[in-house]
Design brief:
Number of helices: 13
Number of strands: 4
Radius of gyration: 22 Å
Oligomer: single chain
Largest sheet: 4 strands, mixed
Strand order of the largest sheet: 1-2-4-3
Shape: globular
Low-confidence stretches: 288-295
Length: about 300
């Protein structure tokens, strides 16, 4: 929910209604113009704020205990939050589940645990950006196992997740679960693919999401180049897949930022600072974060 979005919608509705009322008032008279302006403004405002009003209604209902159990058992990010931030995280999870279509292959029903893990992945990467809303343009499809470019599953297949430019988001259920089971290896396919979604928000994945602060873009491009060389010399905590292209660098770095924040902060401080400012989060500063396995 975003008050600024609502204010913008209200102002836009009033301006459109006023303009239309003025034009029609010249033809049908001032009174008719005023009536038309009011009707149009109200209708536009209700249409533009429908998503916010639905979210407010959802937030007034109890969060399902079964969904909370999944978060408490499997999502360490959620476990480290304060009680008030947990409630906000829960709201964002249910908003995502309400607004997005998440299924198995060919529209098959998907269990609640996997649906919650998909939503948690989406929320983690934007939790520091209050008011951010994913566009309702993509379906999420979760396969049981890894798959290939033609979406065939099997042990010989190798794709764990995929995001198309304007198409669906695809996951392997096994990889999605493993990403939350081990939170210190820098591998989380859910976080990885939603980093790609954010990168695609302007239509092209180039490793520079649109909400990255403008004064961070030039340093970020420089850091990508330097870190790629460190990866090739095996002096980086980032895995080699980050050198595939700029989009994969951003996605792999995002995984490490959320899974190995202290190691990134200590060994790659400039990279960490740029991602901290981009995501509006400082995971290495969490006082409750376990110390082991992150050096």
């Amino acid at each position: 929910m975003s008050d600024s979005n609502d204010r913008g919608a209200a102002i836009g509705a009033v301006l459109v209604g006023a303009a239309l009322g003025l034009l029609l008032g010249l033809r049908f008279g001032p009174l008719a113009g005023i009536v038309i302006a009011l009707v149009v403004a109200i209708a536009l405002h209700l249409l533009k704020t429908r998503r916010t009003r639905r979210r407010r209604a959802l937030a007034r209902t109890p969060f399902p205990a079964s969904m909370r159990a999944v978060l408490e058992a499997r999502v360490e990010y959620y476990q480290r939050l304060s009680p008030s931030e947990r409630r906000r995280f829960e709201d964002e999870v249910r908003f995502f589940l309400d607004e997005q279509t998440i299924t198995g292959p060919r529209g098959a029903a998907l269990g609640e645990r996997l649906r919650v893990l998909v939503a948690a992945s989406a929320v983690i990467v934007v939790f520091g950006r209050r008011g951010f809303r994913y566009p309702k343009l993509r379906d999420v499809v979760v396969y049981d196992e890894a798959f290939d470019e033609e979406y065939r599953e099997g042990h010989a297949k190798h794709i764990l997740g995929m995001v198309h430019g304007q198409g669906p988001i695809l996951f392997s259920a096994r990889a999605l679960e493993q990403g939350f089971a081990n939170t210190r290896d820098g591998l989380n396919v859910g976080v990885h693919e939603f980093a790609h979604v954010l990168d695609f928000d302007t239509g092209q994945a180039d490793g520079v999401p649109s909400f990255m602060p403008w004064n961070s873009v030039t340093p970020w491009l420089s850091v990508m180049h330097d870190e790629a060389q460190r990866i090739e010399r095996r002096r980086s905590i980032l895995r080699g897949y980050a050198t595939t292209n700029e989009a994969e660098f951003f996605a792999v770095a995002t995984e490490a930022f959320f899974e190995r924040p202290r190691a990134m902060r200590d060994k790659h401080p400039e990279l960490y600072a740029l991602l901290r400012d981009t995501f509006g989060q400082d995971p290495a500063a969490s006082p409750s974060e376990p110390q082991r396995g992150d050096a």
